[in-house]
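Something for you to look into today, if you have time. I want to see for myself how the chain folds. Leave the record below and I will have a look.
***
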Amino acid sequence: MNIYSVYWLHKPEYTDIYSQGYVGVSNDPTRRLNEHKLASKSDKNPHLARVLNKHHIIQSIIFQGTEEE
C-alpha cells in the first residue's frame, strides 16, 4: 500500500492555499519537487519550473494517506 501526500508549493509568506502557490499529489513529494524544477527542460510545466528555480519556495505536506483517501 502506497502512502500519498498532498503538498503545497509556496513562498514562506503565503497563507492562502486556495489562491497562492501550487497544490499537487504524489507518492514521493521530494522526487516530484525535483521533477517540477526540471520541467522547463521538457516543457511539461515551464512556468512552475521558472518560479521554483527563481524564488525561495517551500513544500508543505497538507495530508498523507492512501490513494483512496
